[in-house]
Amino acid sequence: MDEHMKRRLDKQRKLFSQLGIALDALTIHEKEFSMKLRGYDPEEVDTFLDSVIKDYERFYATIADLMDKWQEQQITLREMKAESKPAPPPVIRGIDPKEIEETILRLEAGVRQLKERVQRSEII
């Protein structure tokens, strides 16, 4: 068995262990059955176990792919949260706070102008 396959099987065993799955492809492949007088046909058993192994390989690939995608989405979500701009101040009862500020400034300017007119009219 080459090094790549060993690493792949180790990763598979760790993942399956975390998920509570007792069997992996290599365990199934290496399983030896004792022979009895009226036992099963060894070739038929081997053929069936080969298909089980292929399914395990597909399950592992699917689970690993989904976990990778989930991790990518978590990274994207963190980046989006970091990039998000603070929300604008809330509009209270349909009134924009900026409009209130501008109105107050105009009213204050109007009051100053009225005071100046009153002072001028008293001088005259």
TrEMBL record:
Keyword match Cell cycle: yes
Gene Ontology biological process terms from the UniProt entry: cell division
Keyword Cell cycle: yes
Location within or outside the cell: Cytoplasm
GO CC annotation terms, alphabetical: cytoplasm
InterPro entries, A to Z: DivIVA_domain (IPR019933), DivIVA_fam (IPR007793)
Pfam families associated with the record: DivIVA (PF05103)
Protein keywords: Cell cycle, Cell division, Coiled coil, Cytoplasm
Official protein name in the record: Cell division protein
